[in-house]
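Re: the request from the purification team.
They wanted to know what the chain is likely to look like in 3D before they choose a buffer screen. I agreed to run a prediction and write the result into the notebook, where they can find it.
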Amino acid sequence: MDHKDHDKVFFANFGVVMAALFGIFFICIIAASMISSEEEPDPAAIALVEERIRPVAKAVTDPDALIKVSAAAAQREPLSGVQLNTQLCAGCHSAGVLGAPKTGDGAAWAQRRDAAGGIDGLVSAVINGKGAMPPKAGDPSLSEDEIRGAVEFMLKEAGI
């Protein structure tokens, strides 16, 4: 085997491969330009896409803004027991998530009430958190009166 022409053979083969790759590249460019349309996109479709990709929340890192947000939360109207149950408590208590007593289950609620030492103990458990339930059921803006109203409502629903 003659090794003198090895470099010439390599560069010839390399040139053929590169030419084939460039040919494929240009065929893809031409095919893509034939497939794409020059029509204006539908504004309703654009709005739908923008709605789907919009951020779901905004991270607030400015301490002054956090104070304003917490002050605004403190100025809201207090929630009734029914409202708080519907907006927050029912998420876990309607299905009994992670052992939460189900709404309307009188036996489970009576057992919890007796173990906690009455309604004050249940309210304290909600304020401080119990088991998988975080303090104030995960909403630090709730007042003790709002929590008491929700506990009283849930006991009433359970027939207690």
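For the purification team: The chain has a mean pLDDT of 82.
Please add any questions underneath this entry.
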